C-alpha cells in the first residue's frame, strides 16, 4: 500500500469505533465540523480528498477561484517542497497558459498568504512552498499515517485493527479528490488517487474476508466489479466472498463471466491467481477457511522444594487462563508482588487450574511454593494465625521463634519472604479478610487465590472469573477419562452427556468416572440417565464427589433472604433474567433485589451476564429448583412468583405495543395484570427492552403454556403476551423461538378446549408462517383462527385473521379472494374502532389492486393508509404504508416518487430494527432501480437483501435471486445470473409457486442467447 492514500467515501463504517486510537487516528479532522484545536492538532488544516478546503480551528477559510484552489492543491501535494513558477503555470494551465500567467500566480499567492497563518506559504528561490509543521494538517497526511499504521497492524497479526484503520482512512474521502480543481496536474493527481483508492479498498475488503465479514462484502464487491469489470483482484475477492457465504456455484459463475469478458475485451486469459482460486473452489479446499494455530501451554517443570498438590494428569483446556495467569505470575520477577484471585461456582475447576498454573510457574519462584486449603466453604474456615504458623515453619523458622499473635506472625512472615521469590497458593478462601494477612507483600513473590467469592475487596489483585468449559474442552476432558474408542463410537451421545453436565468440569469428571467404571454401559445409557432433569443431580455423584453436595456448601452459607432469592429465581425458565424481572419474581423493590442478586454473584451461585442481567448455570438452576421444592413455604409461593413474572412481561410488552402503535385496540382486548410493568416514554428505549428480553420473555410464554393446562387465566395471559410481542416475529429476528412458543400455547389451548386462547394462538402462528413464506400453512392457521374467533366472539382474530388471509391470497395469486378477505377485515377493524388495523388492511388492499392493474386506486388506498398512520403518529407502521405506496408507484412508472417512498420506508424499518422488512424493501428498491435502468444499484440492493439473512423464508429469497439475476445479466455477468435463476427455480418448483414460469422463461432466454 505504498503511495498516496485514496479510497471511496464510507462514512459510519461498522468497524470505525475502537478502544484506543492510534496517533494518526487521533488527529483526523471532521470535514463536517472541525474540532477545536488541541495541543497536538494544528490550528490550520487542509483537505484535498474532496473539495479543496482550509480551516483555522472551526472556521472555514476562503480558498478563492478554481485556479487559486489549483495553486493551493499543487503546493499541498508537494509535501513542503518548493514549486517553481514555471512548474505552477504548467500545473494550472498546461500548454496554453494566459499571457499574464506569472502575474496571476503571484496574485493568487498573495491572496492565499493573507488568508493563511503567517509562515505557512513561503517564497523560496523564485517559487512557492507550503510548509506544514504536522502531518495531521492535511487530510492526505492523516490518510497516509493511517495506511502506514494499518500495514504495521496487519504485519503484527492484528487484522481487525488494520481493517479499522483502513476504514478510518477511507472515511476521509468526501467525494472526488480535488473536486472542481482545473488543470493537467489535478487531472494526473486524481488518476493517481483513484488507483490508490482502489488498492486500499481491495486491501480493506481482503481484511473483511479475513475477519469473517464475507456475507456483507458480497454486496459491495458486486457493485465494484460492475464499476471496474476488468479489475481481476476485485473478481477474485468476490469469488472468495461468495464461496465463504455458501454460494459456491455463484463464485464459479463469476470466474466464467470473468474469463469470457477478458477474452472478448482483451483477448487474454484470467491471471494465474484467479484460475488457482477457481480450482481450489472446485475441490472445496479447506485452506480457504483460515485458522490460527493455538499457542501451546508451557509444560510444568518439577522444582523442589514445594508444597503444591499434584496436578491432575488429565488437565484439559483453559489455555487462555493458563496464559493470562502465567504472565501475571512471571511478572513477579520484577519489582511488583503479583496477586491473582480466581472466582467461580463450585466444581468449575478453580483449584485444578490454580494448581496447574502454579506448577507451570515454579521456575519463576526458585525459593519455594507454599500451599494451604483455607476451607472457606466449611462451617469453621482456617484461621490466618494458624496458617501463618505453618508457613513460617515451612520457611525454616523454628517453633520457638514464632510469635503468638496474628499481627506479629504476619510481620515476621513478610520479613522472612523479603528478598526471596516464593509463590503462595491460597486455595478455597472464604473472603478477602481471611486472605490479606497471608499475602507476601514483597517484590519477587506472588499469591494465587481461589474462592467462590469474588475478591473485589482485595486491593491490587488481578481478578479472574472462571466460567465453565467450552464444548470442545468438555468433550476432550470426557474423552481423556472414558477413552477415545468408546467416545468415538458414540460422539453425539458424548456431546449430550457433557451438555447435560452444563460443561461444568466437576460434573463431567463425575459422569466420566462413572462410565469408566462400568464397562457394560454405553455412552448412550449414561446420556439417557442424565436426560431426566429431575434425577440429574442425583446421577452426578461418584464416591465422595457429588455436584449437589458442592452446591449445598454455598447455599448453606447464604442468609435467609438470599436463600429465598436463590430458590425463587431458579424457577424461571430462560437463559437469563433482568433486574426488573427479578424484582417482580421476588416482589421486592429493585434496589433490594439488586443487593440480593449481587450477593449471589459474589458467592458464585449466580452469574452477572451483563450489567443488570443475571443467569444460572444449568445445574445450579436445577439445584435451586430442588431447594424451592424442599424449602419454599407455603408451596403457593412458587406459583405466585411465576405469576408475577408473567404479569411483569405482559404489562411491559403491552406498554411497548401501545407506545409503538398509538390507537391500536389490542391493549384493550388483553388480560388484566396485577403488576404494572415498566413504563417507557420513548419508542427506541421500548424496542430496546423488547428485543433484549426476547429470549426470557418467550421462555416465560412456553413455561406458562405448561402451567396453563391447569390454569386458564395463565394460558390466556401467555397468548396475550405472545401477541403483544409480535414484533419479535414480524422483524424476523426471533422467528424460530417465537414459533416454538406459539405452538406450545396453541397445543395447550387445543388440549383444554379453550377456543379463545386457541384462536389467538393460531393468529400468532399465521404471522410466523407468513414471515417464513409458508403460505399454505399460514392460510390454514388463519382459517381456523377465524372459526374459533366466531365461536369465542373474540374481535381480535376476527379482524386480523381475514387481514392475514388477504395477504396470503395476494402472494398466492388469488386476487379476488384477497380483495374479499381484506374488505371483511376493513369492516371488522372499523367496527372495533381500530384505525391502525384499518390502515394496515388498506395498504394490503393496495397491493391487491396493483396486481389487478387498478393502479390509480392502488395508489389512493396506500395514501389513505399513510394518512391514518400520519394522524396516529405511527413511525413503524408508516414505513409499511410507504412500502405499499412505493410498490404501486413503481408499477405506475413513477419511479422517482417510488424510490423516494421506498427509501423512506427503508430508513424507518432500519431505525425500528425490522431486518425482515429491511430485506424486503431492499428487494423492492432493486426492482425500482432495475426498471429505471440502473442495474448496478439494483444488484447492490438485491445483495443487501440476501446479506441481511432476514428476508423471510425460501420463497422470498428466490424472488430476490430472480431480480438479482436480471441485474447481473445487464451487467454482463450471465453465468452468475443463471446460477441465481437455477437456485430460484429449485425453490419455486419445490413450493409450487406461480413465479416458476417466469424463472424458466428467463433461463430459456439466456440459453438461447
From TrEMBL:
Q: Which Pfam families match?
A: BTAD, NB-ARC, TPR_12, Trans_reg_C
Task: Give the record's keywords alphabetically.
Answer: DNA-binding, Transcription, Transcription regulation, Two-component regulatory system
Enumerate the CDD domains for this protein: BTAD
Q: DNA-binding region located at which positions?
A: 36-132
Q: Which residues form the OmpR/PhoB-type domain?
A: 36-132
InterPro entries according to UniProt: AfsR-DnrI-RedD_regulator, BTAD, NB-ARC, OmpR/PhoB-type_DNA-bd, P-loop_NTPase, Sig_transdc_resp-reg_C-effctor, TPR-like_helical_dom_sf, TPR_rpt
Q: Where is this region: Disordered?
A: 1-22
The family classification in the record reads: Belongs to the AfsR/DnrI/RedD regulatory family.
What is the protein name given in its UniProt record?
Regulatory protein AfsR
UniProt organism field: Streptomyces cirratus
State the taxonomy lineage. Bacteria, Bacillati, Actinomycetota, Actinomycetes, Kitasatosporales
What gene makes this protein?
A: afsR
